Amino acid sequence: MSATTNNDAFFVKNLGISPETIRNPLVYSKEKWSGEKLIIIPYQIDEQLDRTAIVNWLAQEVETRKVGAVVLSPSFSDAGFWERCGAIVATTSDLSDRIDDLKNGIRKKTIVFANRYDGIDLPDDSCRILILDNIPYGQTLEDKYFEDVRSNSQLINIKVAQKLNKV
Questions:
Q1: What is the CATH number of the domain that holds 154?
Q2: Closest CA to 71 of 3, 30, 130
Q3: Does 4 reside within a domain?
Q4: What confidence score (pLDDT) does residue 107 get?
Q5: Residue-wise pLDDT tens digits, 91-110
Q6: Angle 12-15-21 (CA atoms, 0-180°, nearest 5)?
Q7: Is residue 132 part of a domain?
Q8: What's the per-residue H, E or C state across 89-134?
Q9: Is residue 1 a part of any domain in this protein?
Q10: pTM tops 0.90
Q11: Staple 110 to which of 24, 54, 87, 157, CB 3.0 to 4.6 Å?
Q12: Total domain count, the chain
């Protein structure tokens, strides 16, 4: 999944991406589709925004939804709240079915991908709303250790940005 946003301040401020990178993004001239998505990171925009209300709103089934709504959640535990509010959590056994549904226009339910930040291609209307429920957790014991002891480190922010860039 690729994504774009109109307000790049979050990426510069919190993920350590240089303003020059934002001003001059990599562009592939032979790309046949636009990667335009709506990225919602409400907890990073305003601490007044309540996760519960947002999940209740965005997890609801919408019969007339014409574009895919996808949530990237760092864990199945975090994804469970979305499921209780009406979203579908993709599992290993039905992952390809969920992706096919989005690509084939079956989009009335929000789909949650837990602990999956790369390797999923959802072009055009298959995913126009991409919700980052939280930043991805470290995968290895070493990553988790560094996240705990150096949580405000520029290196950690760069690693998180690299994970999200694969999305």
A1: 3.40.50
A2: 130
A3: no
A4: 95
A5: 989 999 999 999 999 999 99
A6: 45
A7: yes
A8: EECCCCHHHHHHHHHCCCCCCCEEEECCCCCCCCCHHHCCEEEECC
A9: no
A10: no
A11: 87
A12: 1
